[in-house]
Amino acid sequence: MNTIEANVVTPDGSVFNGQVEMVSVKTPEGGLGILPGHLPLVSLLTIGPVRLKSAGNIQPVAVSGGFVEVRKDEVNVLAESAELPSDIDITRARAAKERAERRLAEAKKENLDFARAELALKRALNRLEVAENK
Asked: pTM of this prediction?
């Protein structure tokens, strides 16, 4: 089966590097599936899981925005933050979700920074989705 090199990198270093059959990402325009031979492109990423398919297995990575760059022979995910399921503390992620839900409710009542609270909730939900659906 054809493969393409995939790299997931954050300012703190590499999170994933390897040959994969497919990379799935979330962009502002919707989901994007990248197979070997895909046309080159650069796109923004939204908060959501990046899915790396290899040998029939899917490795999810919780990504909190960034860019995806598709080149002839590689896919580079340049993320603000990225975590493998094994690196996510589920208890801490659940606590972050609960805090974000409280902030979101307060933001609605007190006309505070709703967008910031909403982003915090999206990040927490993304981390939980990846951690719990290993």
From this structure: 0.85
